[in-house]
Amino acid sequence: MTHVEDSRQVEDSRQVEDEVDRLVAAWRQERPDLDVTPLEVLSRVSRLSRHLERERRAAFADQGVESWEFDVLTALRRAGEPYELSPGTLLRATLVTSGTMTNRIDRLAASGLVTRRPDPEDRRGVLVRLTPAGLHRVDAAFTDLLRRERELLAGLEQHEQQALAGLLRTLLVPFDAPFDASDSGVQ
């Protein structure tokens, strides 16, 4: 397909009515007193999230990885060589409780994807490290995930993807702000 044909296809898809358009039209008819404009964006984000989650699960399943395993393994992989972090750092990176993280590390170690070793800087602590098998598995799953995500974004030009990323970042920044204990009353 040429770039011109691809551009026409993108333009044509923008003229097509989707399920969200029908949902919004129905609400405008039923509740003209309400501004349902947020649905035009957030219902699409929600629907896209479901499609993305389906693709993520498929990519992980193809590589024999569960979503929770991918979260832990990618946190270790992003740490760089020697692909090693403390359990505390892992739980902050994956937003789970310490009990959940302990269980996950135990299961990953039993599967041969990570190992534990004493932390040389903290006699009470341990470090969790990717094994060669864990590194191979996470790299394969991440590569497959990126291929699938590229397919989901294929209808957008590169500059459109960058613009969308910027707009979504603006919406997400307040949610990703670091937790400040002084704001919550916790000392």
The strand line-up of the biggest sheet is 1-3-2
Terminal Cα separation, in Å?
A: 60 Å
Helix content: 55-70%
Radius of gyration: 22 Å
Q: Number of DSSP strands?
A: 3
List SSEs in N-to-C order: HHHHEHHEEHHH
Largest sheet: 3 strands, antiparallel
Number of helices: 9
Structural class, judged by helices and strands?
mainly alpha
Based on CA inertia axes, which overall geometry fits? elongated
Could you report the average pLDDT, rounded to the nearest whole number? 88
Notable characteristics:
three-stranded antiparallel beta sheet, disordered C terminus, mainly alpha, 187 residues, elongated
Verbal overview:
This protein has 187 residues and is mainly alpha-helical. The chain is built from nine helices and three strands, in the order H-H-H-H-E-H-H-E-E-H-H-H. It has helices at 3-15, 19-30, 37-62, 67-78, 87-94, 98-110, 132-152, 158-176, 181-184; strands at residues 84-85, 114-119, 122-130. Strands 1-3-2 form a three-stranded antiparallel β-sheet. The longest helix is centred in the first third of the chain and has 26 residues, at 37-62.
Secondary structure: elements and pairs:
Elements: H1 3-15, H2 19-30, H3 37-62, H4 67-78, E1 84-85, H5 87-94, H6 98-110, E2 114-119, E3 122-130, H7 132-152, H8 158-176, H9 181-184
Antiparallel strand pairs: 1-3, 2-3
